[in-house]
Every structure is written in structure tokens, then in C-alpha cells.
Amino acid sequence: MIREKMVSRILEEINSCSEEILGIRLPDGTDIPEGRVDHRVVFRTWEAFRETLKDPEMGFGEGYMRGEIEVEGDLERVLIIGSRYLNGREKGNFSLFLFKVMNLIGRVNTLKEKRNVQHHYDLGDEFYRLWLDSTMTYSCAFFSSPDMDIDEAQREKRRIIYEKLQLCEEDTLLDIGCGWGSIILESVEIFGLKSVGITLSENQYRYVREEIKRRGLEGRVEVYLMHYVDLPRLERKFTKVVSVGMFEHVGKEHMRTFFRTVEKVMEEGSLFLLHTIGKVHPQRPSRWIRKYIFPGGYLPSIPEIITAFEGTSFCLIDIDDWRLHYYRTLKTWRKRFWDNVDKIREMYGDEFVRMWDLYLISSAVSFYTGSNHLFQFLLSKGVRNDYPIMRREFLRGFVLTH
């Protein structure tokens, strides 16, 4: 009885902040509240219920993965309700224990970093090929029109990056964390420049090497299985540098080293575009995400990033925020993931499917509710007074759909 009263009290607080009604079903079949609700979190076992009470983030995440917690209704809406409720409450409030889980997203040495990267990116090219775009670009796309598909939106993202970097034939481009090589391969074919990419993923390294041969780009594109701290060993200087979706793996304690290393391999007056998920203000990392999805991951805040390059010759040109574009990117990925879920389940099992589904949708919610952002920092090495003045374009046709 005490347990039911406690849960009822929490749900009353949550539902008072939402137009939708959220409910709980306990393992003995007790519905709180009784009657019709818009969405209901169903606990199949008392263990999952107790673990969620004891440690909301890990308890809910692991219980959901095991199938001991399910959602009747729309999981995305449940996460949004919980996230919005948390954003309006103080951290110490008693009632946070149940839906603290909605903060799943948001919150070394070189060998450890390599293992962390391989944990995520070396699942196999076949897995990523099932739900990413044709270039397997695993980072935020840019939807400049509402009818763009994911391939078009990823091309548009790359086009914007090229424009910001003012790429031309005379450039030498470095891509730190080059993924499956879309930027280093395409930029050479479009602009005739020379490019170098580095990655810690053996899968990605092999794939890019094969693509270089297949496209006949030997001598113009190079890829190395290399940690960023080893870049000076190349004894090369670059006129343009880009890093897309890699900085989240650097870690708070290594951000200053990262910027100083990049500075060393850049020509004076060169440009550096850093594309990263981040926070407006510092927040603790999600333990569930760090354990199951991104070991060692850390989402940097704007102040932390700016402080990290303090004392270098980097000058800030621009900061762009693509938050809602990442929401739409993740929603698109999740749909494609479910379009191929039978193949993925056959490859990795049901628990993996539930884990990745929770990861994709909770990530989307984190951008929708403003917990996470997608920043593009544009920096120059030294002051550049000749850089074109930017003007934002208002995308009036950009519409969010659930």
C-alpha cells in the first residue's frame, strides 16, 4: 500500500506537467492510476521495479534491454514527458527517482580510447549499412527542405562543411575521426584537393582503404589507423581540418591536448571545423550510455570547449547549432533500423535490438527537449579578417514530425 501511494504521488506530479496521462503497471497487475492513460510503463518483474527505484538510470535501461520493462503507447512520448518533467524540477526533489532515466543521453590512454571506439564502430559494416545512408555517415545530417531523404540530407551536411571550410584545389584536408571516409573521398573528387583521414576503428580503416582503390584515388587520399595524439608524427601541415562526431570520444580530461595537437599540424591562417554533440552547460555523463553504447564518451559543453582551446592561437569565427536536425536524423535512423529489425535481431539478438532502440529514441528525445545540441565550431589558426561574413538562412519549410 505504501509503495502504491508513493508511485501515485510521483505520477500525479509528472502528469500535472503534461497534457498526456502517464501510468505504471506493477508486476502483480496493479495499474496506477487505474483506467485509461495515454502511455503506460509496464514492469514485468519485481526485480526490474526494485532496480529502477534503487538506480533509475541503470535500472530502467537494463530492465528495458532485458524485456522486463515495456511501454504500452509511444516510447518517445514517454521519454519526452519524463524529460520535460525533470527539466522543471530541482535535482534533489524526492520525486525524481522514477524518471531520472530520461537523462539517458546527455549526460586515458590511447589503448583504452581505441577499445572504446572499436566497441561501438566495429560492430560490422553490414550492421551500419542497414540503417545509415549509402555512405554510412554516422553523424547529424542537415535537412534544408522537409522532403529530403537521409542521403540528400547527408550530402547537404557535407556541402555546408565544404562551404564553411572554403575548400579549393590547393588545399590539404585532414579529417580527424574520418568514419567510413565520406568527406575525404568526396572532397577530393569534387575539389581536386588532397586529403588525409585518421580513425581508430579497424573496420573503418579497411573500408576506406578499399574505397580509395576502388575509386582510383591512390596518391590523393590517405587513411591511417592512428590516434590523434600521433598526428605530429606524420610531419605534415594542413590548410583545412575537420572533425565530425569524434570529439565526443576525447573525454573531458583530454580536450586541451586535442586542441594543442590539432594546432601543431595546421598551417598559419588555416581553418578548423569541429562538429560535435554537446551541452550548453556542463552535465555529468550518462552511465548507461557509457557502459553499453559509448564507453568513455563525454558530451562537452560550450564553456568547456572554449576553455580547452584557451591559450592556443585558435580564433573563433562561428558557432552553429543543428539541434533539431539531429532529432530528425535520429528519427530517420530509427525508422530504417526498424525496417531491418529482423536482420538485426538475427545478427545480434533481441536484447541488442531493445538496447539500440532505446539508445536511438532517447537520443532523439534529448535533442527534441533541448538537453543535447549539435554544435559546429569554426576556428582559424590566427586571426582571419578576410573570412566571408556569415548570414543565417531561415528554413521556413523545416517541420518536425513525431
Gist of the model:
Helices cover 43% and strands 17% of the residues. With 402 residues, the protein is of the alpha/beta class. The chain has two domains: 2-103, Nonspecific Lipid-transfer Protein, Chain A, CATH 3.30.1050; 110-381, Vaccinia Virus protein VP39 (Rossmann fold, 3-Layer(aba) Sandwich).
Protein model, in words:
The chain has 402 residues and is of the alpha/beta class. Helices cover 43% and strands 17% of the residues. The chain has helices at residues 2-15, 46-54, 56-66, 75-87, 110-121, 125-131, 150-165, 182-191, 202-214, 255-264, 287-292, 302-308, 323-339, 341-348, 350-368; strands at residues 22-25, 31-32, 39-43, 69-72, 172-176, 194-199, 221-225, 238-244, 266-278, 314-321, 373-381. Helix 9 links the parallel strand 6 (194-199) and strand 7. The longest helix has 19 residues, at 350-368. The chain is elongated. Mean pLDDT is 89; it is low at 90-99 and 102-109.
Layout of helices and strands, plus pairs?
Layout: H1 2-15, E1 22-25, E2 31-32, E3 39-43, H2 46-54, H3 56-66, E4 69-72, H4 75-87, H5 110-121, H6 125-131, H7 150-165, E5 172-176, H8 182-191, E6 194-199, H9 202-214, E7 221-225, E8 238-244, H10 255-264, E9 266-278, H11 287-292, H12 302-308, E10 314-321, H13 323-339, H14 341-348, H15 350-368, E11 373-381
Parallel strand pairs: 1-3, 5-6, 5-8, 6-7, 8-9
Antiparallel strand pairs: 1-2, 3-4, 9-11, 10-11
Helix pairs in contact: 2-3, 3-15, 4-15, 10-12, 13-15, 14-15
Defining traits:
402 residues; Rossmann fold; seven-stranded mixed sheet; Nonspecific Lipid-transfer Protein, Chain A; alpha/beta
